[in-house]
Specification:
- This protein has about 325 residues and is α/β, with parallel strands linked by helices.
- It has a single domain (about 5-195, about 250-315), classed as Inosine-uridine Nucleoside N-ribohydrolase, Chain A.
- The chain has helices at about 15-30, 45-60, 105-120, 135-145, 175, 180-185, 195-200, 205-215, 220-230, 235-240, 250-255, 305-315; strands at about 5-15, 30-40, 65-70, 125-130, 150-155, 190-195, 205, 245, 260-270, 280-285, 295-300.
- The strands form 2 sheets. A 9-stranded mixed β-sheet has the order 3-2-1-4-5-6-11-9-10, with helices on both faces.
- Helix 1 packs parallel to helix 11 and helix 4 (about 135-145) packs across helix 6.
- The radius of gyration is 18 Å and the shape is globular.
- The two termini are about 20 Å apart.
- The relative contact order is 0.16.
């Protein structure tokens, strides 16, 4: 597909098992033009997240994709780390030594530069795929609010509604890791599409689906199958089945196959007050606040179609 027909994206990430799967899927998609990967604190500390991003991109054979280091900690709260990704963030996966060079430009500056070009009309509007804490994105929009004009949409994985939280009773990890940044993003006026736990918990990598990935063969499919088997929460009481919720790749799937998702548009904000609701995403489903809708929320998913898409993307890599 000609470059002009591809969707320009920046992936803002804290790799992370499901982040790694997302990066591999995005780099294989001919419909996407991955302009950069910006790295943020989150599942692991920033230095480890950078190392993981470099290793994943090297594994994908995509040394042409620039990687930028971003923020080391949240705006106001103390840092927190992921629980399910292993000590190094990539579970059992042993990846080759990275050959991709880390760029010297800070991720916030790089994102601002690309958005300025898009806002001026010199480049097409940019889609930000935010699959970690939203600190990098928030700093861009806080520093230069007018850059929202360069954003086609922010597609983010984060938040939870009826499903409840995965780190507290009410909050999902990505928003809880920096709720003040998340609220800046939701209040920015940017077009936002949100993949909360309510939809990602439908994207369950069951043992049967993991076995199907292995059956397809190829180094990427086998590597991702290993990752997802490691990621298995072994909590059928919560999820209804054995397996791992594949959170972050829903962001890429939405860009490629939006028809796989059911969307409900509403007003969303994030609680920044200390207490039980700290980091909780709150949706005004019935318009009781009178505030204008600011988010397209994914509430339903064709899970079989999602995993078929993911397997097809991984199969595009050379055997």
């Amino acid at each position: 597909m000609p470059r002009a027909d591809r969707i320009p994206v920046v992936i803002d990430t804290d790799p992370g098992v499901d982040d790694a799967v997302t990066i591999l899927a995005a780099l294989a998609a001919p419909e996407l033009d991955v302009r950069a990967i910006s790295v943020v604190h989150g599942n692991v500390e920033l230095d480890r997240a950078i190392e993981n991003a470099r290793r994943v991109v090297t594994f994908a054979g995509r040394g042409d994709v620039p990687i930028h280091a971003g923020t080391t900690r949240p705006l106001l709260r103390s840092p927190m780390r992921g629980k399910f990704h292993g000590s190094k963030g990539l579970g059992p996966l042993e990846l080759p030594e990275p050959t991709v060079t880390l760029q010297t430009e800070h991720a916030v500056d790089a994102m601002a530069r690309m958005l300025r070009a898009a806002a001026s009309g010199a480049e097409p509007l940019l889609t930000i795929c935010a699959i970690g804490p939203l600190t990098n994105v928030a700093l861009v929009l806080a520093k230069e609010p007018a850059l929202v004009a360069g954003i086609a949409r922010i597609v983010l994985m984060g938040g939870a509604f009826a499903e409840g939280g995965n780190r507290t009773a009410t909050a999902e990890f990505n928003l809880l890791a920096d709720p003040h940044a998340a609220q800046i993003v939701f209040a920015s006026g940017a077009p936002i599409v949100m993949a909360p736990l309510d939809v990602t918990h439908r994207a369950m990598a069951t043992p049967e689906r993991v076995a199907e990935l292995r059956r397809r063969g190829g180094r990427m499919a086998v590597a991702v199958a290993d990752l997802l088997a490691f990621f298995d929460r072994k909590d059928p009481a919560r999820y209804g089945v054995h397996g791992a919720p594949v959170h972050d790749p829903t962001v890429i799937a939405y860009l490629l196959r939006p028809e796989l998702f059911t969307i409900r548009r509403t007003y969303v904000e994030v609680c920044t007050s200390e207490g039980l609701a700290f980091g909780q995403s709150v949706a005004d489903w019935w318009g009781t606040t009178g505030r204008p809708a600011n988010t397209d929320v994914m509430i339903g998913l064709d899970a079989d179609g999602f995993f078929d898409l993911l397997g097809g993307l991984l199969a595009r890599y050379p055997a």
